[in-house]
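FW: tagging you since you asked about this chain on Friday. Here's the raw sequence from the shared folder, copied in full. Didn't touch anything.
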Amino acid sequence: MERDVLQVLTEDHALLRWLGERLNAARPARVRINLFNEFARTLGAHQTVIDQTILPALRACGWRGLSSDVLAGHLALKRLLAETLTLDGDAPTFDYALRRIVARAQAHCEVEQRKLMPLLHAMLDDHQRELMAFDAEMHLTRLLGEQRRLGDDADLSPRADELVAEAYVVLGSLATRDEREQAQP
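HL: got it, structure written out here
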């Protein structure tokens, strides 16, 4: 059998766990922000695979056997990611938010492993899971690029530099919080 969507999800879970461990161990500094950006990109890409590949397949199967905590957890994690992305990296609440999102992501990956993946295996045949893997890989490559793998911290360096440069451009074009408050009547 070719690569299937269960393998893709398992690899995503491992990558999120690996990034989460490094993020939890990182001290507040520029490196931690870079790790968070990488974690957020990876989690966002995983969420896209769930939204655009997994959920349509489950819908086509009539949602049979799907535990509500899989969907509720997916939506809660998506919301928490959005909330965390809006925080200032220097804010005191950012440390708490980082620990919270890493813990929530890891817990939800466990729920997906225990409840979602056995369901996908039972409901879909080998060919369907292979086609879903192709679809999932297309989303992941589009969102994360070709280099989607576990590795040592050196693997993050080129991407981290690119993220920092991009962040300076984006943040430089946005109004500061003080500017937004002054603009409000």
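FW: The chain has one domain: 5-153.
HL: agreed, and Residues 92-123 form the longest helix (32 residues).
FW: great, closing this out.
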